[in-house]
């Protein structure tokens, strides 16, 4: 049963968190927290357990960091796993496209929308926006508070 074998497969990686999820509330059977550097090994372990990469996205959580969110599932047994990896805004994450070739597209989308670079990616270029775009639209880069309130500069 995957609910037992996945935590065992991830145990040697010394991850920050491998815990049962509340499927009725979150939609996940297992919740994992890892560092970005651990993601290739996490992906390899989940692949060996027969899991597929369902999706990859990011969340702009603060002025200092993003959270990468990887969703894994299995065709034959209902077992959904979410992996969160906190990434400083000035850092790159390693690609997992050598483990899951379909990650190529997800990583390009995350790069395009958030500006997160994936080290070792075979073709990291914009996917949705024009090549000459100067923005990453899902970054939360807000103007100074005075500008938001509409106050005149002093």
Features:
five-stranded mixed β-sheet; Beta Polymerase, domain 2; alpha/beta
List the helices and strands and how they pair.
Layout lengths: L1 H9 L6 E4 L2 H4 L3 E5 L4 H10 L3 E9 L4 E9 L7 E8 L4 E2 L8 H12 L3 E2 L25 H5 L5
Parallel strand pairs: 2-5, 6-7
Antiparallel strand pairs: 1-2, 3-4, 4-5
Can you walk me through this structure?
The chain has 154 residues and is α/β, with parallel strands linked by helices. It has a single domain, classed as 2-Layer Sandwich (Beta Polymerase, domain 2). Helix content is 26%, strand content 25%. It has 5 helices and 7 strands, in the order αβαβαββββαβα. The protein has helices at residues 2-10, 23-26, 39-48, 103-114, 145-149; strands at 17-20, 30-34, 52-60, 65-73, 81-88, 93-94, 118-119. A 5-stranded mixed beta sheet has the order 1-2-5-4-3, with helices on one face. A two-stranded parallel sheet has the order 6-7. The longest helix has 12 residues, at 103-114. It is globular. The termini are far apart. The model has no long low-confidence stretch (mean pLDDT 92).
Quick overview of this protein structure:
The chain is of the alpha/beta class. About 25% of the residues lie in helices and about 25% in strands.
Structurally, the number of domains stands at 1
Which structural class best describes the helix and strand composition? alpha/beta
Low-confidence stretches: none
Mean pLDDT: 92
**What is the global morphology?**
globular
CATH class category name: Alpha Beta
What's the CATH H-level homologous superfamily? NADH:ubiquinone oxidoreductase Nqo5 subunit
Largest beta sheet: strand ordering: 1-2-5-4-3
Largest sheet: 5 strands, mixed
Oligomer: single chain
Q: Give the helix level as a range of percent.
A: 25-40%
CATH architecture: 2-Layer Sandwich
């Amino acid at each position: 049963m995957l609910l037992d074998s996945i935590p065992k497969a991830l145990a040697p990686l010394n991850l920050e968190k491998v815990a049962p999820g509340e499927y009725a509330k979150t939609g996940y059977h297992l919740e994992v927290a890892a560092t970005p550097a651990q993601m290739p090994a996490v992906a390899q372990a989940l692949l060996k357990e027969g899991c597929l990469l369902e999706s990859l996205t990011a969340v702009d959580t603060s002025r200092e960091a993003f959270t990468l969110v990887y969703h894994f599932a299995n065709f034959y047994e209902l077992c959904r796993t979410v992996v969160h990896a906190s990434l400083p805004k000035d850092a790159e994450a390693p690609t997992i496209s050598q483990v899951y070739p379909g990650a190529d597209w997800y990583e390009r989308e995350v790069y395009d929308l958030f500006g997160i670079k994936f080290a070792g990616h075979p073709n990291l270029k914009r996917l949705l926006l024009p090549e000459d775009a100067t923005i990453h639209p899902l970054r939360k880069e807000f103007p100074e508070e005075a500008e938001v309130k509409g106050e005149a500069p002093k």
